[in-house]
Design a protein that fits this description.
This protein is α+β, with helices and mostly antiparallel strands. The protein folds into 2 domains: 3-200, Homing endonucleases (Endonuclease I-creI, Roll); 227-310, no CATH class. It has helices at 3-12, 19-33, 51-65, 98-101, 123-137, 156-168, 189-199, 202-253, 260-271, 277-283, 290-310; strands spanning 34-38, 42-48, 70-77, 81-91, 106-107, 110-111, 138-140, 149-153, 174-178, 181-186. The strands form 3 sheets. It has a 4-stranded antiparallel beta sheet with strand order 1-2-4-3.
């Protein structure tokens, strides 16, 4: 199961305690998934692709609208077989006020894709509405990979209203158009964590944070290893160059050509080719600091360069 499905499954189990929040979440689900079928009977139909979400829609419609919904499942063949759940509720004469309860309006059997701000006066209702939007049109990458969360919305007006709602919850999303749809997305891990907290996906948030900590530790270890590897390569390269210079000095003039303090360092360098300057300095008598050893090594190299230039 994908991380998106895990999050949706968790959110489908979250049932708000307040009536205002339940209605706000149901309004979001109907705005993005609902339609009106007018034939011999008037039917409110909600189409979702998740059994847990269908169960939540069923309960919300029954409790908040007083209708008697029924759930059915269909197989739709698109790119591959897809299971779709339909929650259908017959609206009997005298029950036409169900739309006014959620401040919804319709046009030719299509529920207008407009957020109803009268339902979103409270912060808790905005959070519930956003939860309904994610259940309908949200997706999120596994935190082990690239951080990315998005909401796919049907038109620019709905996307603009969602941007306003998210902004009031301190969730600043970015927007892009993709294949005639509007996509609001978050790519920063902190913002995604805030989003999950806002919509009540607490278990998913813990999983996300755990993965983020492990990922951060792994990146930190990798950086440290890369840094140490780079330093080791620099040490080895410098050692090889220094040993080559020392051997050429000895071949041309012998060890006695070098002053005693430089001769001691040169002999240690040849004897311990893998040691750092700090380690070589500790072997000297008397010991030298790393900077003192580096200064003495530069004098040795300058002496070698002068000698080689003359020969």
């Amino acid at each position: 199961m994908s991380f998106s499905n895990d999050v949706r499954a968790e959110l489908a189990r979250v049932m708000p305690n307040k009536t205002c929040c339940r209605r706000a979440e149901l309004a979001a689900l109907l705005l993005l998934n609902g339609s009106i079928i007018r034939a011999e009977e008037t039917i409110l139909q909600v189409e979702v692709d998740n059994a847990a979400t269908a169960r939540k829609v069923f309960l919300l419609i029954k409790e908040e609208l007083g209708l008697q919904p029924a759930v059915s499942m269909e197989q739709r063949k698109r790119f591959r077989k897809t299971r779709v759940y339909l929650v259908k509720s017959v609206i009997m004469p005298g029950q036409e006020n169900v739309f006014s309860i959620l401040e919804l309006t319709e046009e030719d059997g299509v529920i207008k894709r407009q957020a109803r701000w009268k339902l979103l006066n409270k912060t808790c209702c905005k959070r519930a509405f956003l939860r309904g939007v994610f259940l309908s049109r949200g997706s999120i990458n596994r935190p082990e990979g690239e951080y990315h969360l998005e909401l796919i919305l049907p038109d620019p007006d709905m996307a603009s209203e969602m941007m306003k709602i998210m902004s009031k919850l301190d969730l600043e999303a970015r927007q892009v158009e993709r294949k005639n749809t509007q996509v609001l997305y978050l790519k920063e891990s902190d913002k995604i964590a805030d989003f999950l907290l806002t919509i009540g996906a607490n278990i998913a948030l813990l999983d996300f944070e755990n993965a983020r900590i492990i990922k951060s530790m792994r990146n930190s270890v990798n950086r440290q290893v890369n840094c140490e590897t780079a330093n080791l390569v620099k040490t080895i390269d410098a050692s090889v160059r220094q040993i080559e210079l020392i051997k050429r000095i000895v071949a041309l003039q012998g060890w006695e050509y070098l002053p005693p303090h430089l001769r001691e360092l040169a002999q240690l360098r040849i004897e311990y080719p893998d040691s750092t300057l700090k380690e070589l300095g500790e072997m000297l008598d008397p010991p030298l600091s790393k900077s003192g050893t580096a200064h003495r090594m530069r004098r040795l190299e300058e002496l070698a360069d002068t000698l080689l230039a003359e020969n």
